[in-house]
Input
Amino acid sequence: MTDPSVYGTPAPPGGDPPILEVSHVSKTLGGRLILDDVSLSLWKGQLKVLIGPSGGGKSTLLKCIHFLTIPDGGDVFLQGQSAREMGQRNICAFRQEIGMIFQDFNLFDHLTARENVAIALRKVKRVPRDKARARAMEELDKVGLADKADLYPAQLSGGQKQRVSIARAMAMEPKLMLLDEPTSALDPQLISEVLSVIADLARGGMTMLMVTHQIGFARHLTSEIIFMEDGRVVEQGPPGVLLDEGAASRTSFFCSHLTELTGR
Amino acid sequence: MGTWELYSTKVIPALNQGLWLSVLIIVPSAVLGVAIGVLAGAGRAAGPVWLRTLLDLYVSAFRGTPLVVQLTMWYYGLPGVSRWLGSILGPLGLPEFSWRFLVLSPYAASVTAFTLCSGAYQSEYIRGAILSIRRGQFLAAESLGFSRAQTFWHITAPVAIRRALHGCGNEIIYLIKYSSLALIVTIRELTGQSKMLASFYFRPLECYLLTALYYLALVSLATFFLGWLERRLRIPGLGPARAEK
Output
């Protein structure tokens, strides 16, 4: 449980307020209740992993945290700042503080890798062009893609695209990163290059909430697994407890089936 | 007068005059048409409902009626409206230009008709291009803190322009040819000129054949320019597959 390779602390450090607090969030889409009173907290430097069957509301939860989808009920607090109180006008400022990694990368097709990273710095943060480009090169270098800076997304492999998208999010210096199945769209041999970049972020102290089916990876890196089903947090706890052989948890049942199905 | 002399001293110079007039109609109509198409297309793809409804009405009116009818209305129809307006505004002591502006010159009527008709078609290409952009692109932009306007200018527009280029170019090429309709509002542009020449010298085949060659040259020029633009704007992964190395 106190394995040094686990990032963040299982219990909240005394007295510090959480970076992220999701408070009683609910969302109905198309008449179906997707999120049902979900609450969770993340402290600085923690990496929490969100798992569960598809359709369980994981992606919607990430979008609600980002206010890309506005929750019907409840609120999201980033360092105590309520997203709801930001209003339509200032929500862009709120979103800048949270980085998002998508399953299908969503790089801007018309921009080179470097410009993909630089454009938000230039247009949203108003960083001068030269500075933004230098900063973009730094971030690309961190994900090992400095030599691909001038290539367009169509010229990159899936793993490279995902690394560029991580560089793009990190360039904005977010307080929190949300990762929505960052390796699910990748060929098996490309998964590890992306996971190692994510592990680097964790080691660097980035606070992260990650949806993944990479249980082995999650087990090594995370301090806490959150299991979601039917729009609810069913279980949460350290991977040692939830995934132990013989643990009669819903999580371990789900994960053992996942292993059978995918061999991962 | 020999045949060769007739062409070199009479027919060709007259056709050149017509060509010049045609160009004066085509270029502003094309430029304004694209501008209207971009605005209307963006409004129809992403605007509020009231704007969308209004623009849909514009497009269905101008795509749904023959251009000849539209052009005739602009030139022969509007003076009637002007007279009626004058009978109301005149007694109120308003200056004459407040209704006289509706009486368009042949040139103004042509450019107005071609611009509005072309804009309606262009907006359809632009709208299609905008709607073809994957939703993930917008999500990514929003997640980085882009506002809606910033997303439109920096993410949507650059991609949409490239995707719409083929269609818009096609419409411009079409415009080059339907500009010949200006002859029905008394403009002696290329086709109008050749109609006169054909009947005056009684050589319809030769005159119209020459005119066809003039249009072919204009269209070839436009095609060349559009091809050049396409190459300049080319980005790997956007546009036709053959574009990639």
